[in-house]
Amino acid sequence: MKKSFLFFLAVAVFAVVTGCEEKIVSETPPEITFDATEITIPGAGGQCEFVYSIENPVADGKLTANSEDGWMTDFTVASDTMVTFVAEPNESGADRNGLITLKYTYGVDGEVTADVKVSQGVAGAAPEIELGAAPSIPAEGGDFELTYEIINPAADGKVSAASEADWLTLNADNSGVIAITAAANTGDERTAEISVVYEYGDGRIETAAEVTQAAAGQTGSYDYEYKMSYFNGTYYGQEYDVNYNYYTWISDKDFDADGYQQNGGTYYLFDIFAAAAPEDENNPLPPAGTYALSSGSGVVEDMTFSWDYSCGTSIGEDGEYVFDTYFDTGTLTIAYEGGNIVMDAVLTDEDGKIHHVSYTGEAVYDVVGGSAGGDDVLGQDLDIEADNAVAVYVADDGDVMEVTIQFTDMAIEGGYATPPGSILNIDMYMPYNESGELATGTYTVSDSYETNTLFPGGKSVDIYGYESLVGTYAAYCPDYYTELIGLITGGTMTVEGDAVSGYDITCTFTTDNGYSVDCSYSGSLEIQGIPGPYSTLEEDYTLNLDGAEGSAVFYGDYYETGGGNWAIKLFPTTGEDGFMTEIVCEAITFEDGISSGTYKPIEYGYLYPGNYATGYMNFTSGQIYGTNYLGGFDNQGYVSEFAPAMSGDLNITNNGDGTYAISFSFIDDLGYTWDGSWEGRLSLEDQSFGGAMAPVRSSVNTFRDTNPFVSVDKVEMVNNLPIKAATLQPNSRLFKNSASAR
């Protein structure tokens, strides 16, 4: 049976914490840091260097450097901040990439490592300057960037930038970027030329980019300009940071009755953070002032709107997107006039397009936030006489099955629990039962993962510092906007009866702050979503992949097993079928591509080099993962036919020119064989974000059988069961008019 990644994560985290206790010799361990984790060296080779630093150094610490790439040798730690090495001339005729590993050892067995990527051009090739797109500058000016890349750099090369325009200030100190500061324009539209010069040895090359600034007050000076009429906001308090969070939509067409964006509408989301508390907690409003787009992922500083969530979407009347984008730079100004909020934003999107969007009108935020760090704490005893219950399969290891049960005394309307009332969430481990029957007996609160135990309540923190509830806990909801949480740390649950006559379940618990939580339930209860065969095949099948387009996304050493993790898909164009797989290959860097070889299946757990993930479905959510045949595509790209790969071989050949040959023969979960082959160019995308700490990890594609299959984070949290209303889960942001982080 497929064991969920979440189950493994809990065990892995415990193992890492235990291991670190033996090695760390101070409360704050050393860390190797760099000005840049990727360097470019001349094709002619020679003496090269790069800068590093050690955070929290130890008295007996020692740094060494080496590379498995034979064309880099003679590594020397020249000082406390510099490493030098010698690179051979690159006479291969093509650019090449390598990796340098720094190791810092200390104490008895303390050790930390870090990698520097190295790119080397071709020996003898002349340097070239490759400029990125020139920014469009609005009338109010501001800070902008012109990116560049030096092809075939020289050892002594230096970049400078200049312009005759006195309204531009340029800075070329940071490699790869010309920083531009433009003064406000009080007159007509104006243009200026920026000259970028690269000087090396006796050589000098130059190129130029032209920038345009809109006229003062000029209409139509932006790529997109909207005056909005609708406001939708949610106030999360300090739930996502020590700063206060205002999740704010403005649009020219309201969301529909079910909370979805409509055709013909344009929608902008500003995920606003401010350090100052709102003047009126019952009617919270963000402070007046100018907010800047935050500097990167996870950054939610005072007077910013987050880089992760803030975005814009415009949908044509035909349902096609005019744009659907996040932003690279931008400012948002908020003022208050006559009881109305006045919002005005100028934004530059990922494609360099300039957006000007404004709103003047009433602003009312739905209040769902609590104190810093998440939900408010339960401060009373609870006695729950549950009228409704639901049980859902989470994971298993073959013998032990993890099940989530939720009990509530609230009324159920439209599939959601309606306050006031309580919910008790049980994280239960029992003997595996494929029929969906509960195992009777007494369960105790324990973190042992053994049968007849309930995992204690707690909070899980993701890469952004956001918390979500896990384990066994109670939630008291006096109204739609309040959720008081009690983490269960002790007590028992007794299950009597059977699936035919019904169960009698009694819970007697204590919370982490000493309150009692009692619950009783009598009635039927069946465990939903237990995995089983999901193949739609009725006989052996050979895939028709004629003309299929291939793509692959790289997630680095996601599983920390020493290989490169890739999610590959083949999407049909002229043929009928598609294919998806997830593998770990020997090559560890994005630049090396996907390693040639024959990949073998795993049953459950982490992928190691040479493995592919067998196909599996989350029967609760209807999401499909791993290696699967895909067919029955409709005109929106959804599928109604599929089959998992449970065994068999996957063969991949890297042709070395950007093209790959893929062939396979698999057995599905009904015993049918499905096979096929394809050869062509894969579109490769790097989403490693630092390996195992990748913040957003999506399934390979979006599918639909009778229900939509949606893209999800790699690490799934089963915390939105049908009985629990989305309004009671602000941590997950599962509102229909929400946006996923990029």
How are the secondary structure elements laid out?
Elements: H1 5-23, E1 31-34, E2 38-41, E3 46-55, E4 62-66, E5 72-77, E6 82-87, E7 96-106, E8 110-120, E9 128-131, E10 136-137, E11 142-151, E12 158-162, E13 168-171, E14 177-182, E15 190-200, E16 203-213, E17 224-228, E18 230-237, E19 244-251, E20 266-274, E21 289-293, E22 304-305, E23 311-315, E24 321-337, E25 340-349, E26 354-361, E27 365-370, E28 376-377, E29 382-385, E30 388-396, E31 400-408, E32 411-413, E33 416-418, E34 421-431, E35 441-445, E36 453-454, E37 458-461, E38 467-470, E39 473-479, E40 482-498, E41 502-511, E42 516-523, E43 527-528, E44 541-542, E45 549-554, E46 564-571, E47 578-585, E48 597-602, E49 611-613, E50 616-618, E51 623-625, E52 628-631, E53 641-644, E54 647-654, E55 659-667, E56 673-686
Parallel strand pairs: 2-8, 10-16, 17-26, 18-27, 21-22, 28-40, 29-42, 30-43, 35-36, 44-56, 45-56, 48-49
Antiparallel strand pairs: 1-3, 3-6, 4-7, 5-6, 7-8, 9-11, 11-14, 12-15, 13-14, 15-16, 18-19, 19-20, 20-22, 20-23, 21-24, 23-24, 24-25, 25-26, 30-31, 31-34, 32-33, 34-36, 34-39, 35-40, 37-38, 39-40, 40-41, 41-42, 45-46, 46-47, 47-49, 47-52, 48-54, 50-51, 52-53, 54-55, 55-56
Your description of this structure?
This protein is mainly β. It has 5 domains: 23-120, Immunoglobulins (Immunoglobulin-like); 128-213, Sandwich (Immunoglobulin-like); 224-370, no CATH class; 376-530, no CATH class; 541-711, no CATH class. Strands 45-46-47-49-48-54-55-56 form an 8-stranded mixed β-barrel. Mean pLDDT is 81; it is low at 1-27, 369-375 and 690-736.
